[in-house]
Write a structure and sequence with these properties.
Layout: H1 8-12, E1 31-35, E2 41-45, H2 57-61, E3 86-89, E4 96-97, E5 112-113, E6 117-121, E7 128-133, E8 138-139, E9 147-148, E10 154-159, E11 166-171, E12 176-180, H3 182-185, H4 189-197, E13 203-207, H5 210-214, E14 218-222, H6 226-229, H7 233-241, E15 247-249, E16 256-261, E17 268-273, E18 277-282, E19 288-293, E20 299-304, E21 311-315, E22 320-324, E23 329-333, H8 337-343, H9 347-352, E24 358-364, E25 376-381, E26 387-392, E27 402-407, E28 413-418, E29 423-428, E30 433-441, E31 453-463, E32 471-474, E33 486-493, E34 497-504, E35 523-524, H10 532-536, E36 549-550, H11 569-572, H12 575-610, H13 625-645
Parallel strand pairs: 4-8
Antiparallel strand pairs: 1-2, 3-34, 4-34, 5-6, 6-7, 7-9, 10-11, 11-12, 12-15, 13-14, 16-17, 17-18, 18-19, 20-21, 21-22, 22-23, 24-25, 25-26, 26-27, 28-29, 29-30, 30-31, 32-33, 33-34, 35-36
Length: 654
């Protein structure tokens, strides 16, 4: 315990001294972190507090470099930039409705999109896919044009991150097909030239003056140039119906489960199937690049790390595997509860890996800190029926860093990670809520130390409309309106509609003239340095596989970090003054509305006096109380009008 600052005799003698302070920084080895059964870490003190003065900066620098309690914890509550983020669901006029999506794929997000198009499996014979531009809102006709190149329903759709029109579809007929959808929506070069030459203006406005009448006629014309580059609706429908795939891949021997494009290598496609293989293909040539057999279980979900050098696979056996695709080796894996159950008793199921259950999906949270330092996020339903989210260190898959229980619903959860926000968006099939969790990092103690995220902090919940989610996907960051501080945009798929949902961070109006580079760091560009031959070669420079970044800052918009916004009068007023002014303004508006209503009522009474409506005829029935009140009001208005119109005080000399 801390000693007293003064004794009673010293205090009575008039002496004074500052009180002793106790530090909360534990000594090295005095505090350990143990994982509980739920996976959450809790501090276990092993010694009592020590009385000492407040630690100096030198003492803090000499504290243990492990994740010990320090002054860095005091900044955790202020580091979240998105805790006030709010969502807005688009109205029906800005959505796509009257759709007929095929919702048979239970463990797939179903919908896929890039910055120009979105695509969903269509409910019809074979394996049709409906595709539309993101700007073509409105009702979808029942006989809409679709792409139909499969003999069985499509399970997975993916768009290339480097070619806007390159789309891959994987079907239950064990085939993968590559499509060029740009040709269905964009005119050919010769057609563009012909359309531009023959283009007529929509509006021609003439301004005639004396000078223009003598010399020349000044005209302003309005043109619709989109019609020169984009096909008409009938042409689009015909092109979609007759579209043939660029490449058809028949290497798999069973239903396709996942289809993904590599994040940093152009035209490199990876797929998994129920034949328990992981295959890489050249999407341009249709040739197989490599094949990795995973005989333990079917892979239902694939996620890449930041540069694509490693992959995380989620299996049907409730196991997460980390794979090096270039070497074709499984680097690390979690212990499967199903495998333990098959080898031993039922009691071993809970003791093997209680953190991973059914409906498993994994997302590699690429935070640009390194291949192995980026954490993994898994979602699953545990044995107790609770849906849970876990954050893992990919270097050690024995126990999660953070565990959180969500609810007891049964729908499949889909994690979507935004690497520019360090935020995970969680959406459950059959839910109506979008949950967001932000990863909070402690500051690094030394420049060479790799810091893992210390917290998975609940950011915000967005309650969408009553229509539950049947599928979901996140649009690229380039689709966001940075001028209105829109940080994310999500497409919600229901049983018959696709609705955009926008997420924004509140900012004052005078700050929206600046680019918020603290919220919008550079994003991945649409160009790639690496090709499929570079990926196949073992001698390729690893710098080729690093993503190219580009800024979202609009031209002519200053960055808020390099410009100090001038305070506006509204920002310098106190909240009390602002509240009082709002109350006064509200009272004035109420009084003005009451005065206007009184004047209108008086005008109505006066009008009824001079323009009596006698169409109903007369009646011998005695007037009621209401009629008497109306008559009295008429008499009062007439007297007032007579008093106003009276000329008793008229001065003839005037």
């Amino acid at each position: 315990e801390a000693p007293a600052a003064l004794t009673a005799a010293e205090w009575l003698a008039g002496e004074n001294s500052d009180r002793q302070r106790v530090t909360l920084v534990p000594k090295e080895g005095s505090m350990k972190f143990a994982f509980s059964a739920s996976g959450s870490s809790s501090p276990v003190p092993t010694s009592s507090r020590s009385a000492s003065p407040m630690p100096t900066d030198e003492d803090a620098a000499s504290a243990p470099s492990s994740r010990a309690v320090s002054k860095r914890f005091s900044t955790l509550t202020s580091t979240s930039k998105f805790r006030h983020m709010y969502g807005t669901e688009s109205t029906k006029e800005c959505s796509f409705f009257n759709l007929a999506p095929d919702l048979s794929a239970m463990d797939s997000p179903i919908i896929a999109a890039n910055e120009h198009y979105f695509a969903i499996p269509h409910r019809a014979g074979g394996g049709p896919v409906y595709i539309s531009q993101l700007s073509s809102y409105g009702k979808v006709e029942p006989d809409c044009a679709v792409i139909n190149g499969h003999k069985a329903p499509v399970q997975e759709i993916a768009f290339s991150p480097f070619h806007s029109g390159l789309m891959a579809t994987g079907s239950n007929d064990s085939t993968i097909k590559i499509w060029d959808v740009d040709s269905c929506f964009q005119r050919e070069a010769s057609q563009r030239a012909e359309a531009l030459t023959s283009l007529e203006p929509l509006v021609a406005a003439c301004f005639i003056s004396l000078y223009n009448y003598i010399h020349n006629l000044l005209q302003i014309k309005i043109w619709d140039v989109d019609s020169c580059f984009q096909r008409e609706a009938s042409q689009r429908a015909e092109a979609l119906t007759s579209l043939e795939p660029l490449v058809a891949i028949h290497k798999h021997t069973n239903s396709i489960r996942t289809v993904n494009f590599h994040p940093t290598v152009s035209n490199l496609l990876v797929s998994t199937s129920q034949d328990m293989t992981l295959r890489y293909f050249d999407a341009e040539q249709g040739s197989e690049v490599s094949c990795l057999s995973i005989p333990q279980a079917v892979t239902v979900n694939v996620s890449f790390n930041y540069d694509g050098s490693l992959m995380a696979l989620a299996g049907k056996d409730r196991t997460v595997r980390i794979v090096d695709p270039r070497s074709g080796a499984v680097v690390l894996t979690t212990e499967s509860s199903l495998a333990a159950a098959a080898a031993g008793s039922r009691s071993s199921v809970g003791s093997s890996n209680p953190h991973i259950g059914r409906n498993l999906r994994v997302a590699w949270c690429a935070t640009r800190t390194g291949a192995f330092a980026d954490p993994l996020i898994t979602v699953s339903a545990g044995s107790s029926g609770q849906r849970q989210v876990h954050m893992w260190d990919p270097r050690n898959l024995q126990a999660p860093l953070v565990s959180k229980s969500i609810d007891s619903a049964s729908g499949q959860l889909f994690p979507m990670f935004d690497e520019t926000m360090n935020t995970v968006f969680l959406v459950g099939k059959g839910d109506t809520i979008i949950r967001t969790y932000e990863m909070i990092f402690l500051e690094e103690t030394t420049p060479t130390e790799v810091t893992n995220p210390s917290l998975l902090e609940k950011s915000t919940d967005f309650q969408s409309s009553i229509e539950p989610f049947a599928g979901v996907c996140m649009l690229p960051k380039r689709c966001c309106d940075v001028r209105n501080v829109e940080v994310a945009r999500v497409l919600k798929l229901t049983s018959d509609a696709v609705t955009p949902i926008s997420f924004k961070v509140p900012r004052a109006d005078h700050l929206k003239t600046y680019f918020h580079d603290d919220l919008f760091p550079p994003v991945r560009a649409r160009t790639s340095l690496a090709t499929v031959p570079d990926w196949e070669s073992a001698d390729s420079d690893t710098s080729l596989f690093q993503p190219i970044l580009e800024s979202l800052q609009p031209e002519g918009m200053p960055a808020i970090s390099s410009s100090a916004p001038e305070p506006t009068p509204s920002s310098t007023r106190s909240k009390v003054d602002t509240f009082k002014q709002e109350q006064v303004r509200a009272a004035e508006e109420t009084k003005q509305r009451e005065d206007n209503f009184a004047r209108l009522q008086a005008m109505a009474v006066q009008n009824s006096q001079y323009n009596k409506n006698l169409s109903g005829g007369t009646s011998n029935v005695a007037p009621t109380a209401t009629a008497a009140r109306v008559a009295a009001a008429h008499a009062q208005a007439a007297a007032a009008a007579e008093e106003v119109d009276s000329d008793d005080n008229w001065d003839d000399e005037d």
